Amino acid sequence: MTTLEYLQTPETVLPRELAYGVLRVADSPVVRHQRVVRDLTIALTAFVRAGRIGEILPAPMDVILDHDANLVVQPDLLFVSAERSEIVADRIHGAPDLVVEVLSPHPRIGRLDERIEWFARYGVRECWLIDLPHRQTVVLSLADGRVAHRRLIAPNSPIRSGVLTGFDLTPVSLFGWAWDHSNDKW
Predict the structure, then answer these.
(1) What angle do CA 114, 117, 118 make, to 5 degrees?
(2) Nearest-angstrom CA–CA distance, 98 and 142
(3) Among 8, 135, 149, 168, which one is most buried in terms of CB atoms within 10 A?
(4) 17 bridge partner residues
(5) Which of 30, 33, 81, 37 has its CA nearest to residue 55?
(6) Angle CA(40)–CA(44)–CA(50) in degrees, nearest 5?
(7) Looking at the predicted structure, is the pLDDT value of residue 177 above 70?
(8) Which residues, 6+ apart, have CB-to-CB distance to 65 below 8 Å?
(9) In the predicted model, what is the mean pLDDT of the chain?
(10) Please, which residues bridge with residue 131 across strands?
(11) Which phi and psi angles does 100 have, rounded to 5°?
């Protein structure tokens, strides 16, 4: 399938992507996944609006990384800075500044490593991985087509972003993750 054919398909809220001409469709996410996306969308939208620094958009939102190569993705959440607002139209035409992927026990579309590689190759500057099964948050700084730095965020430490400077909420405050002393785990 070409990007043009993909863009002519009917609208849907089911997660779907075009991976080099191959259409991938998945079931809708589970409630726990959507709660995290909702809460992070609310927190990031408030932060971005207060600073008038850009726009936050949740999935499903098509991001056309490479029109000619037929590569269209739908990250769980994305940020486009005000300086790059020209890529926002009916869809996102180019790499967002930041993407967030909420990882569930069973991946919905494709492999995580291929998605991160695409984000890095096409110019996404930062990727947050919210790992639900392990209750972990990882911030990946992307540069020169690769992961330049990987930072595991402790549950009570602020999520520091090179893209959203000043954002300082913790995974615990965002997601309610707390230490379970009886099981010695998060």
Answers:
(1) 90
(2) 10
(3) 135
(4) 24
(5) 81
(6) 155
(7) no
(8) 71, 72, 73, 94, 95, 118, 122
(9) 90
(10) 103, 136
(11) -125, 130
pTM of the entire predicted model: 0.90
pLDDT band at 29 (very low <50, low <70, confident <90, very high): confident
Contact at 8 Å (CB) between 83 and 99? no
CA 45-37-175 angle, 5° bins = 95
Identify the residue whose tokens are 């959507």: 34
Residue type, 130: I
| Confidence class for position 106, pLDDT limits 50, 70, 90 | low
Residue with tokens 């890529």: 87
**Tokens at 75, concatenated:** 């990250």
Q: Position of tokens 């035409």?
A: 93
Q: Are 99 and 61 in contact (CB under 8 A)?
A: no
- Written in H, E and C, the secondary structure of 89-103 is CCCEECCCCEEEEEE
Q: How far apart are the first and last CA of the chain?
A: 43
Using DSSP's 3-state secondary structure scheme, residue 6 falls into helix
Q: Which domains does the chain have, with CATH numbers?
A: 29-175 (3.90.1570.10)
Half-sphere exposure at residue 175, Cβ-oriented, CA atoms within 13 angstroms? 28
Q: How far is CA 52 from each of CA 14, 35, 47, 125, rounded to the nearest angstrom?
A: 30, 25, 9, 19
